[in-house]
């Protein structure tokens, strides 16, 4: 197999639906974070050569020549020389959120709107014999009932003939959608849902990964089955073998791992276990659909207005021009909210049948079942030379995405460090449980928990400082700077031997590193309008998940026009505007901001051209400087934007731009280094995280405030994953036992440690903004591993299983019987 | 073949079924309203299950609404009165997203029946700001970016503002305690703490510093 890496694979995964075009550099398979300026050549037709700021300030910035389309705006200088871009900026919709005025999908009220409830399967596996909706339909207030014909978002048999035809979809997990009911109030819809009688022919089931691997386990699918990916990644490989419930392996081989291990001076080898985590967005999956013959209007709690529009058009055989999707505010997605989903399809059918708008939001139990991060059982072996050079990596992983696929964990092992010999084999294991979905850095928190602990273990074996070992094997210039920041600003230099405390409370510190990839979605367009009164608006279908997209777009337009971001009107989250990228895989900032800047720049150039005669000059003599329009040849003359727009010959001008391709073919990754201090109570088994210091990079940060908010969130989700969260299945009944928010424990205020963040600017000269997302590499990848490493430093014991509940901690410390591994 | 077993215990179904004894207050308060609604009625009388007209005093204003006795305050606010600032997340009292004040005390609107809120002073997130002027806690949330997706934010604000009502000079541990029931999935807690402590320090002044749609400001963080 060619020395292709997870990098390419991950990029492939993000190019689903055929609608996206990812700037996908070919070849150059091992190059990461390339900081080597390429040699300039004579620009081709329609291109020009320009000089861009490049590199990391701590290393000294340089300039690099890039060939770019002539329509591209001039290069931006570094953040310190800009007025709004790169400056901490108040969230554009902060007041609307703080005052409760922001309208989420769950808040949408339309005249005559009906309320719906999803009816779902009460058994984990079986055939539906009959569905009797008559009692529900008779309930006063019920307006429409829809029984599902096809279940979306789950794996499907490669050969459907392996299964006896069935009038209704086969039930493969408890909670699988069966029908929807719309009524005049939510109570009536809920009451009616309880009146639907479903008769099942039950089938044997399995809800534990390990049990499902057994040759005599009940099979979830009677033959090979595959799941589609989503715009957020996730979804496993397709053309792989399947035996029973075991789907795979997806195998990647580079070099000669056997020889690599033979050449090693030190080898570490261990097994690691991670649990299923549910997305648990606070706003559940849901839609309001207003089906009208002339246009279907869909309010969606989604990460991709485009993905919803595409799937509605596909499912209902509608031209896209008749589907409008609106997402003004959305209450969290984390990777699980793309496309129409079963909820959207049911809501649309109900709306069509009832001839009225229908709101269908999942309830909290259903939200726990609709999506999850797969679990893992990983066997990892790493070999190294005495000086730390990695000689071989071998990873075998089994994970369950329920009735879905996409449980691979090889990303960190493949892409974090240089190693010429690598073998990874990833298996998906089907069980009768809800489907996995992309979840903030799919596969990476699991993979990193194993890989970065193994690297730490290697450092112990080689008697090297873990930071020094990483300096040796990590080629990323950004992470090198980040490790230096950690060294200088944390307590790392005072690190003690493992298990140094003699009392029952043991303290320690540890670090772990993350890697994520630069994806770009070319479906990124924007229109900028300028009116004679000086008002400026921007329009794009792109959505803001809470990451602060509205704010960074306002900053970029504000920078071009010399006006504060808050004066820019941001209209996004509506497919009536130019198309926007779906937000998955940290794709949004890097994809849409160049389109926005280009549209703003072009609108400004048009403005200058239109008003120059009235100002008695020419367009090329006008420039924006310090927030004012100046005459280049007469320093004494300057105007406000309003004074200039007042001279417009028409009421309005506008410009529209689509993202230009990446400026270079370099493959880029982002990452971070996170440092943890913790205390382990070896008597109770409780782990207290006391301090986290994160050093992260994401290209050119546009709004450091928003970036830091996201990193805080990634770190806290990572701690929550490492210590608390866990889906618990009842092996006897086949249900999720803790599908609520009191027994599915998520980190709360009292578990929040002191957090400090350092942002490392990294100018990459790839687009007119150099922006990049931070969602994935924000801490969710590293924290479990960093906590594991700190746990070792505190106790002298490796903990290879999360969540680190008191039971698992005491088992790791040899003070209690380990729980049976699921 | 097996009939579908019921998967979940319904709280409201329980309240409804146990109404005679467990929910006697419901009957009492609802009954008072029933008397209001139907002239001439006197003496105790069960109401429901049909909808009955009630009056709720919300943010200083009286709102007439017709609800079934089993309707929660959260649902009544959101669906009947279209005051959607109050969010419903878990719908069973474990996340505090629906926090409102009842007689100035934080309460969970998803665990309060609308009929039980009759005659009480209800304050929602919509009632915390005055026109374009935000409550100091809201202004501080904006200033410190104490939100991401924003779905937990109204509940967080109500909890933090209530803390400052009863303790104008809270310590960090007091803030953590005050929002210990408020779940945030985006992980905004550090900034919620900073915002609330800042609001306590500068009470009454922040609203002037950060008005609606404020532009760029200095970041004082890391």
Automatic annotation (TrEMBL), chain A:
<feature type="domain" description="Aldehyde oxidase/xanthine dehydrogenase a/b hammerhead">
    <location>
        <begin position="99"/>
        <end position="204"/>
    </location>
</feature>
<dbReference type="InterPro" id="IPR008274">
    <property type="entry name" value="AldOxase/xan_DH_MoCoBD1"/>
</dbReference>
<keyword id="KW-0500">Molybdenum</keyword>
<dbReference type="GO" id="GO:0016491">
    <property type="term" value="F:oxidoreductase activity"/>
</dbReference>
<feature type="region of interest" description="Disordered">
    <location>
        <begin position="222"/>
        <end position="258"/>
    </location>
</feature>
<protein>
    <submittedName>
        <fullName>Xanthine dehydrogenase YagR molybdenum-binding subunit</fullName>
    </submittedName>
</protein>
<dbReference type="GO" id="GO:0005506">
    <property type="term" value="F:iron ion binding"/>
</dbReference>
<feature type="region of interest" description="Disordered">
    <location>
        <begin position="1"/>
        <end position="54"/>
    </location>
</feature>
<feature type="compositionally biased region" description="Basic and acidic residues">
    <location>
        <begin position="25"/>
        <end position="34"/>
    </location>
</feature>
<keyword id="KW-0560">Oxidoreductase</keyword>
<dbReference type="InterPro" id="IPR037165">
    <property type="entry name" value="AldOxase/xan_DH_Mopterin-bd_sf"/>
</dbReference>
<dbReference type="InterPro" id="IPR036856">
    <property type="entry name" value="Ald_Oxase/Xan_DH_a/b_sf"/>
</dbReference>
<dbReference type="Pfam" id="PF02738">
    <property type="entry name" value="MoCoBD_1"/>
</dbReference>
<dbReference type="Pfam" id="PF01315">
    <property type="entry name" value="Ald_Xan_dh_C"/>
</dbReference>
<dbReference type="InterPro" id="IPR016208">
    <property type="entry name" value="Ald_Oxase/xanthine_DH-like"/>
</dbReference>
<dbReference type="Pfam" id="PF20256">
    <property type="entry name" value="MoCoBD_2"/>
</dbReference>
<dbReference type="InterPro" id="IPR000674">
    <property type="entry name" value="Ald_Oxase/Xan_DH_a/b"/>
</dbReference>
<dbReference type="InterPro" id="IPR046867">
    <property type="entry name" value="AldOxase/xan_DH_MoCoBD2"/>
</dbReference>
Automatic annotation (TrEMBL), chain B:
<dbReference type="InterPro" id="IPR036010">
    <property type="entry name" value="2Fe-2S_ferredoxin-like_sf"/>
</dbReference>
<dbReference type="GO" id="GO:0051537">
    <property type="term" value="F:2 iron, 2 sulfur cluster binding"/>
</dbReference>
<dbReference type="Pfam" id="PF01799">
    <property type="entry name" value="Fer2_2"/>
</dbReference>
<dbReference type="InterPro" id="IPR036884">
    <property type="entry name" value="2Fe-2S-bd_dom_sf"/>
</dbReference>
<dbReference type="InterPro" id="IPR012675">
    <property type="entry name" value="Beta-grasp_dom_sf"/>
</dbReference>
<keyword id="KW-0411">Iron-sulfur</keyword>
<keyword id="KW-0408">Iron</keyword>
<feature type="domain" description="2Fe-2S ferredoxin-type">
    <location>
        <begin position="52"/>
        <end position="128"/>
    </location>
</feature>
<dbReference type="InterPro" id="IPR019546">
    <property type="entry name" value="TAT_signal_bac_arc"/>
</dbReference>
<dbReference type="InterPro" id="IPR001041">
    <property type="entry name" value="2Fe-2S_ferredoxin-type"/>
</dbReference>
<dbReference type="GO" id="GO:0046872">
    <property type="term" value="F:metal ion binding"/>
</dbReference>
<keyword id="KW-0560">Oxidoreductase</keyword>
<dbReference type="InterPro" id="IPR002888">
    <property type="entry name" value="2Fe-2S-bd"/>
</dbReference>
<protein>
    <submittedName>
        <fullName>Carbon-monoxide dehydrogenase small subunit/xanthine dehydrogenase YagT iron-sulfur-binding subunit</fullName>
    </submittedName>
</protein>
<keyword id="KW-0001">2Fe-2S</keyword>
<dbReference type="InterPro" id="IPR006058">
    <property type="entry name" value="2Fe2S_fd_BS"/>
</dbReference>
<dbReference type="Pfam" id="PF00111">
    <property type="entry name" value="Fer2"/>
</dbReference>
<dbReference type="InterPro" id="IPR051452">
    <property type="entry name" value="Diverse_Oxidoreductases"/>
</dbReference>
<keyword id="KW-0479">Metal-binding</keyword>
<dbReference type="InterPro" id="IPR006311">
    <property type="entry name" value="TAT_signal"/>
</dbReference>
<dbReference type="GO" id="GO:0016491">
    <property type="term" value="F:oxidoreductase activity"/>
</dbReference>
């Amino acid at each position: 197999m060619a020395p292709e890496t997870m990098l390419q694979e991950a990029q492939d995964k993000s190019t689903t639906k055929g609608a996206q075009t990812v700037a996908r550099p070919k070849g150059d398979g091992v190059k990461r974070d390339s900081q080597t300026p390429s040699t300039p050549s004579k620009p081709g037709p329609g291109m020009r050569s320009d000089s861009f700021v490049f590199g990391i300030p701590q290393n000294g910035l340089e300039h690099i020549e890039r060939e770019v389309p002539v329509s591209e705006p001039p290069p931006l200088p570094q953040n310190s020389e800009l007025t709004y871009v790169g400056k901490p900026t108040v969230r554009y919709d902060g007041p609307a959120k703080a005052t409760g005025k922001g309208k989420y999908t769950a808040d949408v009220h339309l005249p005559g709107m009906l309320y719906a409830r999803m009816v779902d399967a009460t058994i984990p596996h079986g055939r539906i014999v009959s569905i009797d909706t008559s009692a529900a339909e008779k309930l006063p207030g019920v307006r429409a009932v829809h029984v599902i014909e096809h279940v979306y978002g789950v794996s499907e048999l490669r050969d459907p003939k392996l299964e006896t035809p069935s009038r209704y979809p086969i039930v493969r997990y408890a909670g699988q959608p069966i029908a929807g009911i719309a009524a005049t109030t939510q109570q009536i819809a809920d009451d009616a849902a309880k009146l639907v009688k479903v008769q099942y022919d039950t089938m044997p089931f399995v809800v534990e990964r390990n049990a499902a691997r057994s040759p005599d386990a009940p099979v979830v699918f009677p033959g090979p089955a595959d799941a589609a990916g989503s715009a957020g990644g996730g979804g496993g490989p397709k053309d792989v073998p399947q035996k029973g419930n075991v789907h795979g392996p997806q195998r990647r081989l580079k070099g000669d791992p056997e020889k690599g291990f033979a050449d090693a001076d030190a080898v570490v080898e261990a097994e690691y276990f991670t649990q299923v985590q549910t997305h648990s967005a606070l706003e559940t999956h849901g839609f309001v659909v207003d089906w009208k013959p002339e246009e279907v209007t869909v309010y969606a709690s989604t990460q991709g207005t485009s993905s919803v529009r595409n799937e509605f058009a596909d499912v209902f055989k509608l031209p896209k021009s008749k589907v409008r999707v609106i997402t003004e505010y959305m209450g969290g997605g984390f990777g699980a909210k793309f496309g129409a989903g079963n909820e959207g399809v049911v809501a649309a059918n109900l709306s069509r049948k009832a001839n009225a708008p229908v709101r269908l939001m999942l309830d909290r139990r259903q939200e726990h079942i609709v999506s999850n991060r797969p679990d893992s059982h990983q066997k990892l072996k790493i070999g190294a030379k005495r000086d730390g050079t990695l000689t071989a990596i071998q990873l075998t992983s089994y994970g369950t995405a329920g009735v879905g696929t996409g449980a691979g964990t090889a990303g960190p092992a493949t892409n974090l460090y240089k190693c010429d010999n690598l073998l990874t084999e990833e298996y998906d294991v089907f069980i009768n449980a809800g489907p996995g979905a992309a979840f903030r850095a799919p596969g990476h928190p699991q993979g990193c928990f194993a890989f970065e602990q193994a690297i730490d273990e290697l450092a112990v074996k080689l008697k090297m400082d873990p930071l020094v070992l990483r300096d040796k094997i990590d080629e990323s210039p950004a992470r090198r700077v980040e490790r230096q920041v950690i060294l200088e600003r944390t307590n790392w230099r005072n690190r003690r031997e493992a298990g140094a405390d003699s009392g029952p409370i043991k303290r320690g510190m540890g670090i772990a590193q993350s890697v994520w990839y630069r994806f770009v979605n070319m479906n990124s367009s924007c229109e900028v309008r300028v009116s004679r009164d000086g008002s400026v608006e921007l329009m794009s279908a792109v959505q803001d998940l809470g990451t602060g997209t509205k704010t960074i777009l306002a900053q970029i337009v504000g920078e071009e026009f010399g006006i504060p971001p808050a004066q820019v009107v941001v209209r996004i989250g509506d497919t009536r505007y130019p198309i926007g990228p779906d937000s998955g895989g940290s794709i949004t900032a890097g994809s849409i901001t160049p389109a926005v800047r280009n549209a703003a720049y072009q609108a400004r150039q048009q403005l200058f051209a239109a008003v120059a005669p009235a100002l008695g000059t020419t367009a090329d003599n006008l420039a924006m400087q310090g927030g004012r329009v100046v005459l280049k040849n007469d320093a004494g003359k300057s105007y406000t934007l309003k004074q200039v727009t007042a001279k417009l010959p028409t009421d309005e001008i506008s410009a529209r731009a689509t993202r230009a391709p990446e400026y270079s073919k370099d493959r880029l990754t982002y990452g971070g280094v996170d440092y943890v201090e913790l205390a382990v109570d070896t008597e109770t088994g409780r782990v207290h995280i006391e301090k986290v210091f994160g050093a992260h990079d994401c290209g050119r940060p546009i709004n450091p405030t928003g970036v830091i908010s996201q990193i805080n969130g990634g770190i806290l989700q990572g701690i929550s994953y490492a210590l608390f969260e866990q889906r618990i299945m009842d092996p006897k009944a086949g249900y999720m036992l803790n599908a609520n928010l009191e027994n599915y424990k998520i980190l709360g205020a009292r578990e929040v440690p002191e957090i400090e963040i350092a942002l490392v600017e990294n100018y990459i000269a790839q687009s007119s903004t150099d922006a990049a997302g931070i969602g994935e590499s924000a801490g969710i990848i590293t924290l479990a591993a960093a906590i594991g490493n700190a746990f070792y430093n505190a106790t002298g014991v490796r903990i290879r299983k999360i969540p680190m509940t008191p039971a698992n901690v005491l088992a790791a410390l040899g003070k209690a019987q380990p729980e049976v591994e699921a | 073949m097996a009939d579908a077993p019921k998967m979940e215990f319904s709280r409201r179904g329980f309240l409804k079924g146990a109404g005679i004894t467990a929910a006697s207050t419901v009957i009492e308060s609802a009954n008072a309203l029933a008397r209001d609604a139907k002239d001439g009625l006197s003496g105790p009388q069960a109401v429901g299950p049909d909808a009955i007209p009630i009056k709720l005093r919300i943010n200083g204003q009286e709102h007439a609404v017709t609800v079934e006795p089993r309707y929660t305050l959260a649902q009544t606010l959101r669906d009947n009165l279209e005051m959607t600032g109050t969010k419903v997340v878990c719908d069973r009292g474990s996340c505090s997203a629906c926090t409102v004040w009842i007689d100035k005390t934080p309460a969970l609107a998803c665990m309060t029946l609308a009929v039980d809120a009759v005659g009480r002073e209800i304050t929602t997130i919509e009632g915390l700001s005055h026109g374009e002027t935000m409550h100091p806690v809201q202004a501080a949330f904006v200033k410190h970016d104490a939100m991401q997706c924003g779905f937990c934010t109204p509940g967080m604000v109500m909890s933090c503002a209530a803390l400052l009502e009863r303790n104008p000079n809270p310590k960090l541990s007091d803030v953590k305690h005050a929002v210990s029931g408020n779940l945030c999935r985006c992980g905004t807690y550090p900034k919620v703490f900073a915002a609330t402590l800042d609001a306590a320090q500068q009470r009454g002044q922040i609203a002037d510093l950060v008005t609606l749609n404020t532009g760029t400001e200095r970041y004082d963080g890391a």
